[in-house]
Specification:
The protein is of the alpha+beta class. It folds into two domains: 210 residues, Up-down Bundle (Four Helix Bundle (Hemerythrin (Met), subunit A)); 202 residues, Nucleotide cyclase, GGDEF domain (Alpha-Beta Plaits). Helices cover 65% and strands 17% of the residues. It is built from eleven helices and eight strands. Strands 1, 2, 3, 4, 5, 6, 7 and 8 form an eight-stranded mixed beta sheet that branches. A hairpin with a 2-residue loop joins strand 2 and strand 3. Helix 1 runs antiparallel to helix 3, helix 3 runs antiparallel to helix 4 and helix 4 crosses helix 5. The relative contact order is 0.07.
Length: 454
């Protein structure tokens, strides 16, 4: 089958658009992640600076409180641990100042104007920070010299308080400045995220219009064709196998099979009736007419037989050359299997007679029937067919081959099932090939029928 150039072009176009859209979405996602991570890093740095400022404010307040305690409580000054604590606070103050300086110098994302503004605030606050540390250190030194005496370094305390006021105000200004920058950064981050989201949604919308909608239409068309082909395959399978057997076959079929895997579906039936019908003289006819005409005649005859089998809900098993095989009582068991087969056999004789009238031919059929237990199912690894096995099948075949043209030859087993509803003629004991002597009968018709078969 030649490929459709229009379909191939459409597929290539969809693939191209899809690839471009995926690449664009990927680039936007990566770019967005880089921008967002950078802005988050900046906000993290801002929060770190704010945390250092709060730490510095806390240290400043602790120093003031401890100095006030040393001044007001004479007993406290006798404890050298309080002076050591004040000295440690001075050291911590110096360390926090260095950390704050490093943090503010490494703040990312600041414009030159922002950097200049920040450096100006820090420069204004730096002398107060140095003076505060020096005053606190002087208080520690003088306190050790005059332990137990009244603190007379009023000038150092006044300097400490004055520098503390300037420091707290400066730290508050820097903290507010960073807080505002953090809020502004969060707002910018939201705008960036919304912008990226809008662009990605636009790309996805275009992708849906240009790629996915045509692709979905193609998929729907393909699924429709597949569903149609599956329905056709299902109908073909059901035309070959009975519905219950077809279902079992599909369930037992593995997804991937090897040449050595085989399928076996076999069910035993104790009550079934098998019929064979053979067209008399058809083999000789095949040498006198063209094969096409021969097959056409055979198709017409068997098609009529198929309709009769369907009307009695009987299961056609197969045709072998000019032989026709049908069974009653399976795959769905039924109690009237023998009566249904007998009725079909009678109608088959009428059908062949009508066929001869319609075509001017002079065909006759030989029919054999037997009832009993059979095994039915599917075996093998390919070209599955529903078939029957067992002695019941063999005897039914012998009934046909040992019968007479235009008559229905039945076994004693079938006779026992039908003798109350059908008319029979006893044939007597007959020598059956492979079976020996058997009592057989000719089926003539139904007892309640106005006519009977000869």
């Amino acid at each position: 089958m030649s490929e459709n150039p229009i379909s191939n072009t459409s597929t290539r176009r969809l693939t191209f658009f899809y690839t471009i859209s995926l690449g664009l979405v990927a680039c936007l996602s990566v770019t967005g992640q880089v921008i967002v991570q950078g802005m988050l890093s900046q906000q993290q740095k801002n929060l770190e600076v704010v945390s250092l400022i709060e730490e510095r404010q806390t240290l400043c307040q602790e120093v003031i409180k401890l100095v006030a305690l040393l001044k007001l409580e004479p007993e406290t000054r006798k404890n050298p641990q309080e002076l050591q604590k004040l000295q440690q606070l001075v050291i911590d103050w110096k360390d926090s100042g260095e950390k704050l300086t490093n943090a503010t110098q490494n703040t990312p994302g600041l414009s030159p104007n922002q950097k200049n503004e920040l450096q100006g605030k820090l420069a204004q606050m730096k002398p107060a920070g140095v003076g505060f540390r020096e005053a606190a250190a002087k208080i520690v030194t003088e306190g050790r010299r005059s332990r137990g005496a009244r603190l007379s370094q009023e000038s150092s305390v006044k300097q400490l308080l004055a520098e503390e006021k300037i420091l707290m105000q400066g730290l508050e200004d820097v903290s507010n400045w960073y807080t505002q920058e953090t809020i502004a950064g969060v707002n910018r981050l939201k705008q960036v995220e919304l912008g990226l989201l809008g662009i990605i949604l636009l790309v996805l919308l275009l992708e849906g219009i240009l790629v996915f909608r045509p692709a979905v239409n193609k998929i729907q068309d393909t699924l429709g064709k597949l569903a149609l082909e599956q329905a056709q395959s299902e109908n073909l399978l059901l035309n070959i196998l009975p519905h219950p057997i077809a279902q079992k076959l599909k369930q037992s079929q593995p997804s991937q099979k090897t040449k050595t895997d085989n399928i076996m579906i076999a069910d035993g039936y104790n009550d079934a009736t098998v019929m064979f019908a053979d067209i008399v003289g058809f083999t000789n006819l095949s040498g006198r007419i063209p094969p096409e005409q021969l097959v056409d005649l055979l198709n017409q005859i068997f098609s009529r037989f198929d309709l009769i089998a369907e009307s009695y809900q009987l299961e056609k098993i197969k045709t072998i050359g000019d032989a026709y095989m049908v069974v009653g009582g399976l795959p769905n068991p039924r109690t009237d299997h023998a009566a249904a087969i007998a009725s079909m056999a009678i109608e088959m004789l009428d059908a062949i007679a009508q066929f001869n009238i319609d075509t001017g031919e002079e065909f006759q059929i030989r029919i054999g029937i037997n009832s009993g237990a059979v095994v039915a199912g599917v075996i093998g690894i390919k070209k599955f067919t529903y078939d029957l096995w067992g002695d019941t099948v063999n005897i039914a075949s012998r009934m046909e081959s040992h019968g007479n043209p235009g008559r229905i030859h039945v076994s004693e087993a079938t006779y026992e099932l039908l003798k109350d509803k059908f008319l029979f003629e006893e044939r007597g004991v007959t020598s059956i090939k492979g079976k020996g002597e058997m009592q057989t009968y000719w089926l003539k018709g139904a007892k309640n029928s106005a006519t009977s078969v000869l």
